Backbone:
């Protein structure tokens, strides 16, 4: 029995998609099916599935070091909690705009490599460039005399090293745009080349690849020292390492992800919705005319991400401040750098900053634990789906997540329990990142996979905006209250 037959949410018929009331998507689907190379998708070996999903390792490693060190990096340079959610709009904005647009463009792409691989290749190059900007923000800021300003002990909500922070923001936006150029086609190529019966298995392997990449990135974040010879900070070292690992991770997909190129008949794809305006019209119509099955999956995916998103951005900061009782805006370094004459203030400042930095590294270890649990659970996830069904597995993961969220509210956690709690979130993260895409891949047929994968991702990024701004507001209020109590 196929996966779609087991899941009541998914219809075996493709009539819903065939009735989408606009020309370009229907004609693209006809071109795809009329291709001389169009055949039934054969079963793939585990090695082939691993090669198809390996490009997601680039995405996830980038996310791992970005989420682990992004917020602390900006906080250490004087950016307030009120501003940080606006900086992190890079991810949701690029996901909401870039990924659906890339989905449409890749659906129409007639490159000899196929529809998805050209975008994976270009996106990987752009990821490397974004990492280059981030890794050079501090040294370039030093050229403008901002090194001492960045380490000033003066507290306040305004950045103390404007040029460095500006470069960091630019690099973060480039990186997030590039990630979304890769992410949609990387998921779409799995849906394109893997048959319905293997979609759950393929997406579980994909989740495992993501988990291993996360694990590797966060373990590096935990055990790489704060100061690295030749590189300076661990932040700069990790992004420099990423510039090597990202091309290596997309290489198997580029070499082995053999696609069926669309035919060379241009008429149907340059119909009434050609050009850049047509691309945005297709994206808009895909939201308006979303199949019923897609809308259900998108709503559940939205709610899952709205709840989980703050954990991504604030876990390391939470452990640094609330668990380790550190302060990112206290100064670190030598007496000359501090320029403070009171020995008591010097000791207090260094202790709090050191505690925060150690908390960030422990937070990276916690995220590594999450990735490990996610990877291990992805290996048995298919078994639970076949045993209980998609609905029950998904619902149980949501209840489990809610229970874990209550624990730090009711109990003051030490570092060990904080790491364990964050690690257990990997079960939930594995489930809600695999099953929705497997469901959508079962609903879709052929040409429009890239577009609808982008639409599904759009529900994720809107949820991230909701979750991050809600969390950022409450963290700011809590931080202000804590500062008043300490005075």
Residues:
């Amino acid at each position: 029995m196929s996966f779609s037959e087991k899941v009541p949410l998914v219809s075996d018929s493709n009539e819903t998609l065939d009735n989408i009331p606009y020309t370009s998507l229907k004609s693209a689907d006809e071109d795809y099916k009329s291709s001389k190379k169009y055949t039934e998708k054969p079963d793939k070996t585990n090695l082939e599935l691993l090669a198809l999903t390996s490009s997601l390792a680039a995405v996830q490693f980038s996310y791992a070091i970005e989420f682990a060190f992004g917020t602390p990096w900006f906080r250490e340079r004087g950016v307030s909690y009120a501003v940080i959610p606006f900086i992190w709009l890079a991810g949701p904005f690029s996901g909401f705009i870039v990924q659906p647009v890339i989905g449409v463009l890749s659906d129409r792409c007639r490159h000899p490599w196929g529809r998805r691989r050209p975008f994976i290749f270009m996106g990987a190059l752009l990821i490397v460039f974004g990492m280059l900007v981030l890794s050079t923000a501090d040294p370039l800021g030093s050229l403008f005399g901002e090194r001492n300003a960045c380490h000033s002990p003066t507290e306040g909500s305004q950045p103390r090293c404007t040029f460095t922070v500006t470069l960091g923001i630019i690099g973060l936006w480039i990186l997030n745009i590039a990630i979304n150029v890769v992410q949609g086609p990387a998921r779409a190529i799995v849906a394109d080349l893997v048959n319905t019966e293997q979609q759950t298995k393929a997406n579980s392997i994909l989740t495992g690849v993501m988990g291993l990449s996360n694990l590797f990135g966060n373990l590096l974040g935990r055990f790489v020292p704060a100061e690295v010879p030749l590189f300076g900070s661990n932040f700069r070292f990790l992004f420099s390492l990423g510039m090597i690992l990202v091309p290596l991770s997309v290489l198997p997909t580029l070499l082995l992800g053999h696609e069926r190129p669309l035919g060379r008949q241009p008429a149907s794809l340059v119909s009434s919705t050609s050009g850049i305006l047509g691309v945005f019209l297709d994206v808009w119509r895909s939201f308006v005319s979303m199949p019923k099955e897609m809308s259900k999956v998108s709503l559940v995916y939205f709610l899952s991400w709205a709840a989980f998103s703050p954990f991504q951005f604030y876990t390391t900061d939470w452990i640094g401040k609330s668990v380790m009782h550190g302060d990112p805006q206290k100064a670190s370094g030598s007496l000359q750098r501090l320029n403070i004459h009171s020995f008591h203030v010097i000791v207090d400042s260094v202790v709090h900053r050191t505690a925060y930095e150690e908390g960030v590294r422990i937070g990276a270890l916690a995220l590594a634990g999450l990735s490990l649990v996610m990877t291990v659970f992805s290996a048995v996830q298919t078994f639970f789906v076949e045993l209980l069904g998609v609905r029950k597995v998904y619902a149980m993961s949501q209840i489990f997540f809610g229970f874990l969220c209550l624990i730090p509210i009711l109990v003051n956690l030490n570092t060990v329990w904080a790491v364990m709690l964050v690690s257990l979130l990997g079960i939930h993260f594995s489930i809600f990142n695999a099953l929705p895409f497997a469901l959508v891949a079962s609903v879709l047929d052929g040409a429009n996979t890239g577009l609808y994968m982008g639409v599904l991702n759009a529900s994720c990024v809107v949820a991230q905006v909701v979750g991050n701004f809600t969390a950022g507001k409450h963290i700011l209020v809590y931080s202000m209250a804590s500062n008043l109590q300490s005075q």
In short: Strands lie at 227-228, 232-233. The first strand starts at residue 227 and ends at 228. Residues 374 and 429 are 7 Å apart (CA to CA). The chain has 20 helices and two strands.
